[in-house]
Recover the amino acids of this structure.
């Protein structure tokens, strides 16, 4: 189960941290922001190549991909929302937990206007997403069983077919290569593949 540090307890006068599950909503947010960061890096590389080939000086630039609470609320698929009625505060709390665990950072916050609070993925968040992707190889023991399992979980048919076709390659890949392969799939299938990965790698727990 994917988990993160979220709760502090005291035992024998000492502060300890409990491992708590990261919710499907939080995983979706991290993977989406990670994929957008990769796109931004690739765009920067293209710009650098064009400028260098045209003999322009290239000073470079940095740009963290950031999304507001409002934008994130629009992107989150309904299939990973909890069954109970939720509101702005619920999604905001999910994001603040990720911030507390240093998986997200905040580039702008105004408490009176929570919907405009802007979040970006941190280095710790990027590392966690890579670990999530690399755990795919642990899921693939038997190709037939793996494909049958994919058929049973919720997700886009096209994304399922892509992942089935990838299963043999994933089994032969080093874990470092898997993140790049999966992120290419996310660029093609978007949120539908992220939802499939969440259902594949996480227990069916609602946040």
């Amino acid at each position: 189960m994917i988990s993160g540090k979220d709760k502090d307890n005291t035992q024998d006068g000492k502060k300890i941290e409990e491992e708590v599950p990261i919710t499907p909503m939080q995983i979706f947010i991290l993977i989406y922001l990670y994929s957008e960061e990769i796109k931004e890096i690739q765009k920067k590389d293209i710009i650098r190549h064009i400028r260098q080939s045209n003999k322009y000086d290239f000073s470079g630039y940095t740009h963290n991909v950031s999304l507001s609470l409002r934008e994130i609320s629009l992107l989150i698929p309904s299939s990973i929302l909890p069954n109970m009625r939720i509101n702005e505060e619920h999604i905001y709390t999910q994001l603040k937990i990720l911030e507390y665990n240093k998986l997200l950072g905040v580039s702008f916050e105004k408490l009176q206007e929570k919907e405009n609070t802007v979040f970006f993925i941190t280095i710790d968040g990027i590392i966690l997403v890579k670990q999530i992707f690399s755990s795919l190889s642990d899921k693939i023991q038997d190709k037939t069983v793996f494909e049958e399992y994919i058929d049973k979980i919720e997700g886009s048919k096209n994304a399922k077919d892509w992942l089935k076709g990838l299963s043999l390659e994933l089994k032969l890949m080093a874990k470092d290569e898997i993140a790049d392969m999966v992120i290419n799939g996310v660029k093609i299938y978007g949120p539908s593949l992220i939802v499939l990965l969440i259902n594949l790698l996480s227990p069916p727990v609602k946040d």
In short: The chain has two domains: 22-131, 135-201. The CA atoms of residues 43 and 157 lie 29 Å apart. DSSP finds nine helices and five strands in the chain.
